[in-house]
Amino acid sequence: MAEYTTFDMGAAPTQDQGYSGPPPTNGGNQMQGQGHGQEAYSQPPMQPALGAIFGGNTGGLGAELLGGYASQVGEQQFKEISGEVSKYVNVGQLRFYFQVDTPYVLRKLRILLFPFLNKSWERQGKDGKMLPPKQDVNSPDLYIPVMAFVTYVLVAGLTLGSLGKFSAENLGTLLSNSSGFVLFQVFVCYAALWLMNLSEIGVYDLLAFCGYKYFGMTLSATAYLLTHNPSAYHGVLLWTAVCLGFTLVQTIRNMDKGNVKLLYFSGALTAAEVLFVWWFTSGLLSASEPISTDDTS
């Protein structure tokens, strides 16, 4: 009796059943085996799979995440530093003294050079607050003093260089002495205001008043740099010192015309400023003394 073999049409063929496709020809068995091995064991990396999930660009996503994290860290550090600085410096009030524009700077420089032409010295206010410098030419600012200070150091360095006496050490000494003396002067003036019970002038006002002298010092040093003539230096120095003194007296006394103490303080500050301008810039003249080149051989 014949035996019949039944087949399960739903089961997948196995290797024992011999279901492996058409036989290879011309040595194709080895090539096909290598191809199946590469497909079986060289799995694609995870990036395409992640790219399919996150939109197909994992490199850009990582850069965005890293950039966002760095931005958050930087913002946090900036807030911490700003908080530490704000404990000692009123940043909002300091920003008030840098609210300048080109018309204000030109008008202020004209006053510093020709203060006798200015008709009004009273500060302007609105809603009980003083107007910023760009809206009131009589308001003290810190932009001109800072720029004049930097310019003076550069011009003084050029003058020393033209005399053959420039060195990094001399320039550093000039910079440190200039800035240090201004800070010391502000401290002394603030102590004097406290002893005189004067509250009309703040620390930043003092810093501005003590910094305006560098504009005249820059002009004096420039005159000597261009001419190498002591007479030109003394002429410019004398004029700018007188104009500075007149500007300081008029500006300070008009803060409160009824307070005589302000007039005394403005006179003392003017005298100190004139002496400082003469003493500090006289170093350029002493540097111009000829160096002995006698050949003793």
Q: Would you give an account of this structure?
A:
- With 297 residues, the protein is mainly α.
- It has helices at 28-41, 46-54, 58-86, 91-96, 102-113, 143-162, 168-195, 203-211, 213-227, 230-253, 260-287; strands spanning 125-126, 129-130.
- It has a two-stranded antiparallel sheet with strand order 1-2.
- Strand 1 (125-126) and strand 2 form a beta hairpin.
- Helix 6 packs antiparallel against helix 7.
- It is globular.
- Mean pLDDT is 76; it is low at 1-21, 24-41, 46-55 and 291-297.
Mean pLDDT figure: 76
Give the ordered list of helices and strands: HHHHHEEHHHHHH
**Low-confidence stretches at least 5 residues in length (pLDDT < 50)?**
1-21, 24-41, 46-55, 291-297
The count of β-strands is 2
